[in-house]
Specification:
Layout: H1 2-6, H2 12-26, H3 32-78
Length: 79
C-alpha cells in the first residue's frame, strides 16, 4: 500500500485547473468560490505530500529492518 501511495500523480486536467487558480490567486482575481476551491486543492495536495513522506519513511524502515534481519541470519549461519 505504501509503495502504491508513492505512485499517486495529479492528472493533467487537475494540474491545469490548479495552475489557472494559482495564477488568478497571484493576481488577486479569484472569486469567493474559486478561492474556496483553490484552498481545498492546496490542502489536498499538502495532505498527499504528508502521506507520501510517511510512506517513504515507512518503506525506508522496512528496508532497513529487512537488511538487519538478513545480516543477522547470515552471521548465525556462519557460526
Amino acid at each position: 500500500m505504501a509503495a502504491g501511495l508513492l505512485e499517486l500523480r495529479v492528472d493533467s486536467e487537475l494540474e491545469a485547473c490548479i495552475g489557472a487558480l494559482r495564477r488568478k490567486a497571484n493576481l488577486e482575481t479569484l472569486t469567493a468560490e474559486e478561492d474556496a476551491e483553490y484552498k481545498e486543492l492546496v490542502e489536498a495536495v499538502e495532505l498527499v505530500s504528508i502521506m507520501k513522506a510517511n510512506a517513504r519513511r515507512f518503506l525506508a524502515k522496512q528496508c532497513a529492518s529487512h537488511g538487519q534481519r538478513s545480516a543477522r541470519s547470515g552471521s548465525k549461519a556462519r557460526q
